[in-house]
Amino acid sequence: MKQSLRQLLLLSLTGSVLLAGRHAVPLMEQTAIGTAVLPESVQPEAVRQETAPAESPQPSAVTDTPQTETAPVTTPELQAPADPPAETPNIINIESEGSKAMHYSQLYQQDNSGAGGTIVDRHFGVQPGNLFFSLDGGGQVRNTTFWSNADLLAESRIEPELDLKTDGTPMVLIYHTHTTESFVSEKTGTYTDGFNFRTTEPDKNMVMVGDAIAEQLAAAGIGVVHAREIHDFPVWSGSYDNSAATVRSILAEYPSICIALDIHRDALGEGDAVAAPVADISGKQSAQIMIISGCDDGTMGIPEYRKNFHFASKLQQTAERMFPGFTRPILFDYRKYNQDLTQGSLLIEVGSQGNTLEEVRFAGELTGKALSAVITELAERGTQ
Fold first, then answer.
1. Secondary structure (DSSP) of 63-125
2. In terms of DSSP bridges, do strands 223-227 and 132-134 run parallel, antiparallel, or are they unpaired?
3. Which uninterrupted H or E stretch holds 161?
4. Mean pLDDT across the chain, nearest whole number?
């Protein structure tokens, strides 16, 4: 019975959006932009997709596929990537010369003709149903595993056991398996026909979000290594193998690192309608984040997955305490995503393809602040 249920759940996860029922209602009213109306079937519990652009055919979350051809882009003279940030105390930026040479390969599109489809802002709040349970300190978990919600709630109360310091020693690794994932430039309620939401420009893709997180960590005295390497271009296939090699190399060079965060963006939508997960944080609009913590059913090769979940639960509750409404439920599912490499390995989805660059950079700042608070608390507890 459990095996059949699990197979059914895994099958449903391969679609672009997993439906949780027609009556799930977010806490914050859905906001329509212009005449855009998001289909009712697009529900907040969308799962991680290793996708090409939302308007293109989307590969399964299980199998990598070659990246699709890119749409026409503007000229390098108009859209040359910005220079990388200068290294600051507590931040070590790492990128190979081969990766740097690709910064001009797929330039960011600026055309906003709106012919591609609609984008609707939506806040994904507390979710009903048996798949979800609430954490003591705020936020939820979406549990699609053999664990009972009661047992998993008990696990969420276990404090992470991480050897953390706030003296500038490298503690955190930020990297990007799907480095080229990108966002819209402004809030228009539509997106361009053929815009594939990807670019190799580091100031307009996931590297930009990673920079925002790293800056907050460094300001709190926490050492961070930011791997700015492009792992998913020019070929999409093998992105996770590529990023795993990067992570292993950095962990060998900086063995003090015990937290490794793969920073992505989600793909939310159905047909030509896209959902942008948003939250109002102190009067400013931010993209919402979703933490993914992988579970091992005995075949995943993540023997310490429970420790990753302890850390995910701590981060989720801290983020919700500091910035209510900022997070979507943790996805606890049979996913590996290189989470076998440390005992503090997580994947974090920052917004979706419908969010703006400004919204996701702000979300990166908030994530960095919440993460800094967690690390500072655990470091101080470890010295007592």
1. S--PPPPPPP---HHHHPPPPPPPP-TTEEEE--HHHHTTTTTSPPP------SEEEEEE---
2. unpaired
3. none
4. 82
Q: Give the mean pLDDT of 123-145.
A: 97
Count of domains observed in the chain: 1
pLDDT of residue 17: 33
Tell me if 140 sits within 8 A of 153, measured CB to CB.
no
| Res. 86 pLDDT band, cuts 50 70 90 | low
CA atoms within 13 A on the CB side of 193: 2
Q: What is the pLDDT of residues 235-244, one digit of tens each?
A: 999 999 999 9
Report CA 271 to chain centroid distance, whole Å. Answer: 22
Question: In terms of residue numbers, what domain contains 17?
Answer: 2-382
Whether residue 232 has pLDDT greater than 60:
yes
Averaged pLDDT, 223-230 = 98
State yes or no: cis peptide before 234, omega within 30 of 0.
yes
Q: Which of 15-24, 110-119, 204-213, 246-255 has the least mean pLDDT?
A: 15-24
- Encoded tokens for 17: 């959006």
Tell me the helices (H) and strands (E) count for the chain, helix number first.
8, 14
**In this predicted structure, what is the pLDDT of residue 4?**
42
Q: How far apart are CA 84 and CA 97, in angstroms?
A: 13
Separation CA 256–CA 166 (nearest Å): 12
Is residue 11 packed enough to be buried (19+ CB in 10 Å), middle (13-18) or exposed (0-12)? exposed
CATH label of the domain that carries residue 77? 3.40.630.40
Instruction: Give, for 22, the enclosing helix (H) or strand (E).
Output: none
Rounded CA separation 29/41 (Å)? 16
> Number of C-alpha atoms within 13 angstroms, CB side, residue 218?
18
pLDDT tens digits along 168-177: 999 999 999 9
- Alpha helices by DSSP H, listed for 162-222, are 206-219
